[in-house]
Write a structure and sequence with these properties.
336 residues; alpha/beta; UDP-N-acetylmuramoyl-L-alanine:D-glutamate ligase; 10-stranded mixed β-sheet
């Protein structure tokens, strides 16, 4: 069984759903094209409230596990009731806890997710920590497995040194690395982030993240897909993936750029859609080394997740992805 180190966040997700949100067009800012708001000083009654396990390391691990890959979570929880709750939930998901560190007084990560039940989208407020206080060097010293992949999700302070360590480790062990940069990295030292793109096998970004990354790096950029790819490919990632919500996803490998539309489905909840895409894509890429199969698995997994509530509900098993693969392959278009 193939093994993947999953580095990123573990969160307690608190979902509050309401139909009272107002969506405002903000097309003057390419990186923030829509805003969500509420009446100032209002008291809003929620339609529903629920709690679930989340975070990039957990969501991607769950998706990889469904695809027949053994994920090993590199993350941290606090010594608190929230830490107890998170570890219990991870155990119920049958995910390995061996490399999850438990330390410190800083609370585990908690996300408050305001879901707009009318427009089927959300805003996430996050507090606490699951990545900054994770001791990567200690975890790598204890790591005795032969892994085929490393997935890097949410990162915050100190990410540059951790990335350098991971790049050295992956090159020494000949491990393929997929990276989904966090908003923190895109806002803080984006030029250093771009300079590392050539050291990774796969880069995952959504369209807004790609635009913001280029803007923050003082690149001249438009809202068009072609110039966005042209600018980012100058930094030499082997495979560049840009997801674009309802418009599907674009993937560049070498001189080729492919596009796939998002499948039709009734949207229940978009939380975890990006992680579902990443886990499906990376699983197929590791299994077959085929970008077209990978983009199929990614979009099928993502579409299935947004048709259910929660970041891991709706994830497809490997046999389901294989069964759906043929019809989805036919929808891929080469645009360059």
């Amino acid at each position: 069984m193939k093994k993947v180190i999953c580095i990123g966040s573990i969160t307690k997700d608190i979902f509050i759903s309401t139909g009272e949100a107002k969506v405002v067009d903000n097309k003057g800012d390419m990186a923030v094209q829509k805003l969500i708001g509420f009446e100032f000083g209002a008291k809003i009654y929620a339609d529903s409230y629920r709690e679930s396990l989340g975070g990039s390391a957990v969501n991607v691990s769950a998706g990889l596990s469904q695809c027949g890959i053994l994920p090993l979570i590199f993350s941290r929880v606090s010594n608190s009731d929230t830490g107890d709750w998170l570890l219990k939930k991870i155990g119920k998901e049958k995910l390995k806890k061996r490399f999850i560190q438990r330390n410190g007084k800083v609370e585990s990560e908690i996300s408050i997710i305001i879901s707009d039940s009318v427009h089927n989208d959300h805003v996430i407020f996050r507090t606490g920590d699951s990545v900054e206080r994770f001791d990567l060097a200690k975890a790598l010293r204890k790591f005795k497995f032969n892994a085929e992949g490393i997935y890097i999700g949410s990162q915050k302070e100190g990410w540059e040194e951790k990335f350098k360590t991971l790049i050295e480790f992956s090159k020494a062990k000949k491990i393929k690395v997929a990276c989904n940069p966090s908003g923190f990295q895109i806002k803080n030292n984006p030029k250093s982030l771009l300079a590392m793109f050539g050291d990774f096998e796969i880069i995952f970004l959504n369209r807004d993240e790609a635009i913001e990354l280029l803007q923050n790096s003082e690149e001249n950029i438009t809202n068009e897909v072609g110039p966005i790819f042209e600018a980012l490919l100058n930094y030499k990632p082997k495979v560049l993936v840009i997801t674009d919500g309802r418009k599907g996803a674009y993937v560049a490998e070498g001189e080729n750029i492919y596009h796939i539309k998002a499948g039709a489905t009734e949207i229940m909840d978009t939380v975890g859609a990006g992680d579902a895409f990443s886990s499906g894509f990376f699983a197929a890429y590791l299994e077959y080394n085929d970008v077209k199969k990978a983009i199929c698995w990614g979009v099928m997994n993502s579409v299935s997740v947004i048709s259910a509530m929660g970041g891991t509900n709706g994830l497809l098993k490997k046999k389901e992805l294989i069964a759906l693969e043929k019809d989805t392959l036919s929808t891929i278009k080469k645009i360059k």
